[in-house]
Amino acid sequence: MKNENIPGDVKSKSLKEARDEIDDILNKLESKDADLAGSIDDYKRLIQLNNHIDVLFKKKVKEISSTTAKIKKNDKK
User: Fold this and answer.
1) N or C: which end of the chain has fewer CB within 10 A?
2) What's the first-to-final CA gap in the chain, in angstroms?
3) pLDDT at residue 2, rounded to an integer
4) pTM strictly above 0.90
């Protein structure tokens, strides 16, 4: 799922907010009272949240790589 396919309400979440919602969904899905129809919607939401977290991590990796490259470049001077 590409970033543009992630709903705005998910894109606006911080990493902690997304992780907290994932924990809530997982607890709901693991309960013995979970209904199948609701579980499908919950699973779709879980995938969206997971993809959002993946995008956030990729952005952070780029930032870290850029910072590391600048530090290495300055160290060589």
Assistant:
1) C
2) 42
3) 55
4) no
